Amino acid sequence: DAGVTQSPTHLIKTRGQHVTLRCSPISGHKSVSWYQQVLGQGPQFIFQYYEKEERGRGNFPDRFSARQFPNYSSELNVNALLLGDSALYLCASNPDSPQQYFGPGTRLTVT
Amino acid sequence: RKEVEQDPGPFNVPEGATVAFNCTYSNSASQSFFWYRQDCRKEPKLLMSVYSSGNEDGRFTAQLNRASQYISLLIRDSKLSDSATYLCVGESGGSNYKLTFGKGTLLTVNP
After folding, report:
1. CA-only gyration radius of chain B, Å
2. Using beta carbons and an 8 Å cutoff, which residues of B are at the interface with A?
3. In what order do the strands lie in the sheet with A19-24?
4. Closest by alpha carbon to A21, among A95, A73, A57?
5. Strand, coil or helix: what is A66?
6. What is the per-residue pLDDT for A1?
7. Phi, psi of B25 (to 5 degrees)
8. SS3 category, A1
9. How many CB atoms lie within 10 A of CB A54?
10. CA dihedral B84, B4, A19, A96 (to 10 degrees)
């Protein structure tokens, strides 16, 4: 079975721009979570979606938004990019258990 | 105070050594706990869940003490392949689901 896939793998944007990151969960997984990981830190929880509804939200500004589609894939959107948004963005899916299966991530660089 | 705090590390140990990682959490609403492993420039992967009764998987033993809000991971007979960053994770549910990662502790096992 394919694992969690994310696209793109790398992205370079400039301050003030908008970015959309995409994630496809493992087949059969209905829950998708998004994390931001800055170098030297653990992943920080941004959102979790379950059956297209937001189930949890971390301490991120409103510039961050997400949605989940009927096929359970998900998008993370970040508006008005700041230099501090440069990070590895990880998507994870999970079945009905809490175990998270992570994708390889999208490395975002904001210049 | 961070919700999940880990030993800052890094740990450098010889092959065959026993190494212990400690983690404390401040959110008493946290329901489940896990240890994840993250190799350099890779995504985190679940190592093991943590139960109050303690659980063991081969050379790895995890323990949860809810009274002290303390989680531990013990690695016995460490191998070169154990070199990675170990992340302590707490899960809280309810109306706002959240998964909180610690900063991670880097382990290097030397020949």
Report:
1. 14
2. 4, 32, 34, 42-46, 49, 87, 91, 96-104
3. A5-7, A19-24, A74-78, A64-68
4. A73
5. strand
6. 60
7. -130, 150
8. coil
9. 15
10. 90
Give the closest residue to B75 by CA, choosing from B59, B94, B58, B93.
B59
Amino acid at A59: N
pLDDT single digits (tens) B23-69: 999 877 777 899 999 999 899 999 999 977 889 999 999 999 988 99
Average pLDDT in chain B: 91
Can you tell me the mean pLDDT for A76-82? Answer: 98
Write out chain B residues lying below 8 Å of A40, CB-based: 103
Instruction: Count how many pairs of residues, chain A against chain B, have C-beta atoms within 8 Å.
Output: 50
pLDDT at B31: 78
User: pLDDT by residue (tens digit) across A29-66?
Assistant: 999 999 999 998 999 999 999 989 998 899 999 999 99
- Residue B6 pLDDT exceeds 70: yes
Calpha distance B32→B91 (Å, rounded): 5
- Three-state SS string over chain B comes to CCCEEECCCCEEEECCCCEEEEEEECCCCCCEEEEEEECCCCCCEEEEEECCCCEEECCEEEEEECCCCEEEEEECCCCHHHCEEEEEEEEECCCCCEEEECCCEEEEEEC
Residue with tokens 């959102």: A47
CA distance B111 to B57: 23
